[in-house]
UniProtKB/TrEMBL annotation:
One of its GO terms (molecular function) is ATP binding. The lineage of its organism: Bacteria, Bacillati, Bacillota, Clostridia, Eubacteriales. InterPro entries: AAA+_ATPase (IPR003593), ABC_transporter-like_ATP-bd (IPR003439), ABC_transporter-like_CS (IPR017871), Metal_Ion_Import_ABC (IPR050153), P-loop_NTPase (IPR027417). Pfam families: ABC_tran. It comes from Evtepia gabavorous. Keywords: ATP-binding, Nucleotide-binding, Transport. Residues 10-241 form the ABC transporter domain. This is Metal ABC transporter ATP-binding protein. SMART domains: AAA.
């Protein structure tokens, strides 16, 4: 169920980013409502990660980024962030339990995890149906399993906005749909907004409420159908998409 303009929202106005004298982003304006899933698409180097880093407060920017609660009151939102999948050495010995416990409590990975902290990790993993992963070694996780662990970490504590940078990268087709179904479940259960980037256009029609086509500036914003069938999309990606979002010959 997509959000409504009258509820809480993230409002980005006239955002610009310049790094080392080079213009990375310019004139970025959009609104993300509560319970909305918004997809960010664009070619490599379009500025998607820089936009995320601006919202996270990691790089300087011009313009404004505001979050408002229902009733129009400005607020500082809790933001959960899932970066592009990091790679782990397959022989890395620590378990998901060790990794998660260290991340949320700074518990040393070389010490046994106490019972109360194990219970907390189990509770967090349950939010993404990942309890069975708790004893697996981080280095042996599949792409989809690793995304579940990182997503569970981003949901502790429960944020108001969840940002995911290429969450489908390294995930097989079956895993993609499981992950996207989970994101849809999470946004409804916890009443949060989701902003994610992707190069997989075939899933947008079924999972995204809005799509932004970005190439340093916003070229097109709208429903998946409006963006994927736009002249702007065809000019950027040189693709003609059929009705279901697949590539047409």
């Amino acid at each position: 169920m997509p959000g409504k303009p009258g509820t809480c929202r993230l409002q980005v106005r006239d955002l610009g980013v310049t790094l080392e004298g080079e213009s990375i982003l310019r004139d970025i304006t959009f609104q993300l409502n509560c319970r909305e899933i918004m997809a960010l698409i664009g070619p490599n180097g379009a500025g998607k990660s820089s936009l995320f880093r601006s919202i996270l407060g990691q790089i300087p920017y011009s313009g404004s980024i505001q979050f408002q609660l229902a009733g129009g009151y400005p607020s500082h939102p809790k933001i959960g962030y899932v970066p592009q999948s990091p790679s782990f050495d397959r022989g890395y010995p620590i378990s998901v339990l060790d990794f998660f416990a260290a991340a949320i409590s700074r518990w040393p990975v070389f010490l046994p995890v106490p019972g109360h902290l194990r219970d907390k990790v189990t509770e967090c993993l349950a939010r993404v149906h990942g309890e069975a992963l708790i004893q697996k070694r981080i280095g042996t996780l599949s792409g989809g399993e690793l995304q579940r662990v990182l997503l569970a970490l981003a949901l502790e504590p429960i944020p108001q906005i969840l940002i995911l940078d290429e969450p489908l990268s390294g995930v097989d087709v079956g895993g993609e749909h499981l992950l996207l179904d989970m994101l849809d479940e999470i946004r409804q259960k916890y009443d949060l907004s989701i902003l994610f980037s992707t190069h997989d256009f075939s899933t947008l029609r079924h999972y995204a409420d809005k799509v932004i086509l970005l190439q340093q500036a916003i070229l097109k914003v709208g429903t998946p159908g409006e963006v994927l069938h736009s002249p702007e999309f065809q000019a950027v990606f040189h693709l003609n998409l059929g009705e279901e979002g697949g590539c047409a010959q």
